[in-house]
Design brief:
The chain contains 20 helices and 14 strands. It is of the alpha/beta class. The protein folds into 5 domains: 3-123, Rossmann fold, CATH 3.40.50; 150-237, DNA polymerase beta, N-terminal domain-like (DNA polymerase, domain 1); 239-290, DNA polymerase, domain 1 (Orthogonal Bundle); 296-441, 2-Layer Sandwich (Beta Polymerase, domain 2), CATH 3.30.460; 452-509, DNA polymerase, thumb domain (Beta Polymerase, domain 3, 2-Layer Sandwich), CATH 3.30.210.10.
């Protein structure tokens, strides 16, 4: 297994330096006596387990291939303590209750430290760790308490700790490319914490009392403070796999599974994709490649407003009382984005059902539609909200590539607000813009508006807070009180926050 993947998984602390030992010297020297590790393959997977086992041995740990009597610590990923114990009991092991059963976070933090770190309560598998675990270190008397939930913090658009949050975001993205959800979530939560700070981090002491920042994150911050950058992040950015996945997933219609497939085929660049004649592409992917430069470039606030005006004019021709709202980053105050999300509703129940198809037909007749994909509503009002914080909603929607005329955009664009295009695009009098149209009934509008406004991490924490703290279930359609077994009505976002017992957070303060 290459060192790129190793660097993407564990932090490298410069002082003292950790030496990567060649596999030619295997087996490795055991540095830490009395600790024998066993990595549970269940839910971890064979290839990932083999990689982690070799990594542990390189760091001087005694790692067993099989579960023997000598094992002292069992490390599991995406398993609860209950699941591991059930597996141990089913294996009829005599010392099933004698092992230390630990989450993968303890192992990765040991890899970063270069030695076995102290086992804390957060490392011990008591409950499911991959989507619900949080770490709340004790808050020092000199530090104001900060909630581990982004929905209880105000996060402005300006990020004064961007040098650190960019590093965390890159590592979170890399974990996403490896489909390592647990580590991805941890880095996203840590990044959200730093984005909400009102003062810059200038020393490691500034981290005292902050939740969700484990040793792994602190090593990265310390590295940046000392060196101006983190070698681990640089290695990730320079790795062949990360660069390839960045390119592949930037193509409209390409997800992780397709990116993985292309990478395994030996493809690495955009030109590789374009030149492989026998590559099967969906219609969405073909159009994504055709208008790649336009879609990849920034959409300015003026362009977003122009798109909203165009759609609003069309919709209001046949539904005069329709409401068309710009959501996403633009509603949170951003001046640039990569697409335009429009939420459409009507006060008259049922009228909204024909809006999408009528709008698409008009755009077609105007010659505006470069691509569209309509997804019909799959909402079932007999079902409760989704338990998954990342679950897509069930609204009728359409993903478009829209032709926006230059003359419809008022004013001059600055370099930051404009876009970089090839010569062919410069000769055009229009630009291809990605647009999402989402249709919602009026009674669900507040939930849809909240969900589609974001930021993604703010929404995840809002749903996590509802589940863990209030015994409720929240999604883009409804809020369900599991204790009272009733759906709670809401006309506005403020109503939803009130049901959850939270102070209302304005959209401009949700940039977690």
């Amino acid at each position: 297994m290459d060192l790129v993947r190793s660097s993407a998984l564990v932090p490298i602390k410069k002082k003292p330096k950790l030496v990567h030992i060649s596999s030619a010297f295997y087996p490795y020297e055991v540095k830490f006596k009395g600790i024998v590790l066993y990595l549970l393959e269940r839910k971890m997977g064979t290839s990932r387990r083999n990689f982690l086992m070799e990594l542990g041995r390189k760091r001087g740990f005694h790692v067993e291939n099989e579960l023997r009597d000598s094992v002292t610590h069992i490390v599991a990923e995406n398993n609860s303590g209950e699941e591991v114990l059930k597996w141990l009991n089913s294996a009829k092991l005599t010392k099933a209750n004698a092992y230390q059963i630990l989450d993968i976070s303890w192992f990765t933090e040991c890899m970063g430290a270069g030695y076995p770190i102290k086992i804390e309560h957060r490392h011990q598998l008591q409950v499911q760790e991959d989507c619900s675990a949080t770490f709340n270190p004790p808050v020092s008397s000199s530090c104001v308490h900060m909630s581990p939930y982004a929905c209880q913090r105000r996060t402005p658009l300006q990020d004064i700790n961007r040098i650190f949050t960019d590093a965390f975001d890159i590592l979170a993205e890399n974990y996403e490319f490896w489909e390592n959800k647990g580590s991805r979530v941890k880095f996203m939560r840590a990044s959200a914490i730093l984005k909400s700070l009102q003062s810059p981090i200038i020393s490691i002491k500034d981290l005292e009392g902050l939740p969700l920042l484990g040793d792994e994150m602190k090593y990265i911050i310390e590295d940046i403070l000392e060196e101006g950058q983190c070698c681990r992040v640089v290695e990730v950015q320079n790795s062949e796999r990360y660069k390839a996945f960045k390119v592949f997933t930037s193509i409209f219609g390409v997800g992780l599974k397709t990116a993985e497939k292309w990478y395994r085929m030996g493809l690495r660049t955009l030109e590789d994709i374009k030149n492989k004649m026998d590559l099967k592409l969906t219609s969405m992917q073909k159009h994504g490649l055709l208008y790649y430069e336009d879609i990849l470039s920034y959409v300015s606030r003026m362009e977003a407003d122009a798109v909203a005006h165009l759609v609003r004019t069309i919709v209001c021709e046949f539904v005069p009382d329709a409401v068309v709202t710009v959501t996403g980053g633009f509603r949170r105050g951003k001046v640039v984005g990569h697409d335009v999300d429009l939420l459409i509703t009507c006060p008259r129940s049922g009228v909204e059902k024909n809006i999408l198809h009528n709008t698409i037909n008009v755009l077609k007749n105007q010659g505006r539609l470069l691509f569209h994909d309509i997804i019909e509503s799959t909402f079932d009002d007999t079902k409760r909200p989704s338990r998954c914080v990342d679950n897509l909603d069930h609204y009728q929607k359409s993903f478009l590539i829209l032709k926006l005329l230059k003359k419809e955009i008022e004013g001059e664009k600055t370099k930051d607000e404009g876009w970089t295009k090839p010569e062919e695009a410069d000769r055009r009098d229009w630009k291809a813009v990605r647009v999402d149209l989402v249709i919602t009934p009026q009674e669900q509008y507040a939930f849809a508006l909240l969900g589609w406004t974001g930021s993604p991490q703010f929404e995840r924490d809002l749903r996590r807070y509802a589940t863990q703290e209030k015994k409720m279930m929240l999604d883009n359609h409804a809020l369900f009180d599991k204790t009272k077994k009733i759906f709670l009505r809401a006309r506005t976002e403020e109503d939803i926050f009130a049901h959850l017992g939270l102070d209302y957070v304005e959209p401009e303060q949700r940039n977690a």
